[in-house]
Amino acid sequence: MEQGELQDILEALSTVVVADLAVILSVDGTNALRVNAASGPLARPGLIGRRVELADRPRLAAIVRGERATLVHDSEEHDVHEPDTYAGVVELPHAHTCLAAPLRAWGELVGVLTLDSAMCHAFSAEQIRAVDAFAGLAARALHAQRRAARLAREVDALAALNATLSQSGPAGAALVGSAPVWRSLVERVRLVAPTSATVLINGETGTGKEQVARAIHQWSPREAGPFVALNCAALSGDLALSELFGHERGAFTGADRRREGRFELARGGTLFLDEVAELSATVQAQLLRVLEQRTFERVGGAGTVLTADVRLVTATHKDLRAEVRAGRFREDLLYRLNAFPIRIPRLSERRADVPLLATHFVESLRDTLNMPGLQISGTALRRLEAYDWPGNVRELRNTLERAAILAGGKRIRGEHVDLDVAVTDLPDGPATRSGTPAVIQRLRRLDRAQAVEIVQALEESGGKISGPGGAAERLGIKPTTLHSKMKRLRLRSGE
């Protein structure tokens, strides 16, 4: 935060109230303050940025919660059982005057103004009232600076979001959406990204967990650093240790050279561990140690301690609390990973976003498939929106890629949308002569009705589609139309 304006306020205050040290501190978290500006004979460079904990300073904490400037102590006989606010940086005699005024702007506590004098009884009642007046000025200035910093972070976050959404392919697609449940998720991502908190992302396969993790990285102070991802489900216990922490030459059979692990490769950036529930008990213990001590050793590298300078983001599609109850996951590790949980909703929970996502994918497929004329019809969009999407965003993209190929790179119509549906038998009927069961379990109601009609026509025609007496004639449609419907509904004829 810029010091210039706050420093000017302290200099102006010094013309009214003489003090050996005047300091403006801003709120830093729920129970601490941080020095933003200091002036006076006792001001030291080491004060700027100093964090002051209120937990062990109850009298100062009480003043911060108040409304007016208050003397902390002002007597030779005072008995203070809490450390001086700037102990270790500024030396004041045991008997001195300390005055503190809370800084409130529009009802919000933004900081505190303190004045210290090496003499007792240094401040008169008039001077205390003057301090209150300057406190109001300092509060407004501090509030404005905090607001400007917050707006700057939001601008940076929007710029990062724009950059993410401009990427081709699925990267960034998980951030496309306007449904309320999705806006809530994006807001949580924006809140946690600027912090150093460990994030646990939970969501079904295909919902875009890695894309959300990338957004956290891109909106964080570590944006310039690397983003390193590792799928834990693909690793055995010993291999996972090597992949995470690296190994020294000769650490095991085949280790013919030293290799850096993901914790080293992600130095200064973000490490994303997908499917973290699949880690073995041994690896879980090592990961917990790294989170607690922020250090690790390469496999076979006893005595070589390395610092874990990474922001950890993990993800899973499992219920980790259930895994803890089943004895498959460490409870203490869960608490470490779950500092800030984010749940990604299923695509079926935000159906209104399907057309927006589909349009986004079509735009990216123009480049990836070299189909500059690719478009999508309203009929195709409505068909996509009505589907349940058990495979979530990943299934939607794959479906559109198939549709783009079927459409020859031109306009995707409803018949090009080849949905992946499951087939089951009718509860009360045998399979038809065509060998295709009569009901398709996961089809929409209209599709199920069409499937029943087609199967019945095929039975009546002996599996014949075209020609006199064929199923197409019985249904009153062209054979080519019937073929298209059967392909879409996964039905086979006996021909």
Report on this model:
The protein is an alpha/beta fold and 495 residues long. The protein is built from 16 helices and 15 strands. It has helices spanning 4-14, 58-65, 125-165, 180-192, 209-218, 237-245, 262-265, 281-293, 320-325, 331-337, 354-368, 378-386, 392-406, 445-460, 471-475, 479-488, and strands at residues 21-27, 32-39, 51-53, 70-73, 97-105, 108-117, 199-202, 227-231, 270-274, 295-296, 306-307, 311-316, 340-343, 375-376, 411-412. Helix 1 (4-14) packs antiparallel against helix 3 and helix 6 packs parallel to helix 8 (281-293).
Task: Annotate the secondary structure layout.
Layout: H1 4-14, E1 21-27, E2 32-39, E3 51-53, H2 58-65, E4 70-73, E5 97-105, E6 108-117, H3 125-165, H4 180-192, E7 199-202, H5 209-218, E8 227-231, H6 237-245, H7 262-265, E9 270-274, H8 281-293, E10 295-296, E11 306-307, E12 311-316, H9 320-325, H10 331-337, E13 340-343, H11 354-368, E14 375-376, H12 378-386, H13 392-406, E15 411-412, H14 445-460, H15 471-475, H16 479-488
Helix pairs in contact: 1-3, 6-8, 11-13
CATH top-level class of the largest domain: Alpha Beta
Q: Architecture of the largest domain in CATH? A: 3-Layer(aba) Sandwich
End-to-end Cα distance, whole Å, is 77 Å
Beta-strand segment tally: 15
The CATH H-level homologous superfamily of the largest domain: P-loop containing nucleotide triphosphate hydrolases
Helix-strand category: alpha/beta
Helical fraction equals 25-40%
Q: Order of strands side by side in the largest beta sheet?
A: 3-2-1-6-5-4
- Count of structural domains: 3
Mean pLDDT: 82
User: Given the C-alpha coordinates, what overall shape results?
Assistant: elongated
Strand fraction band? Answer: 5-15%
Low-pLDDT segments, ≥5 res: 159-173, 421-443
According to CATH, what is the topology of the largest domain? Answer: Rossmann fold
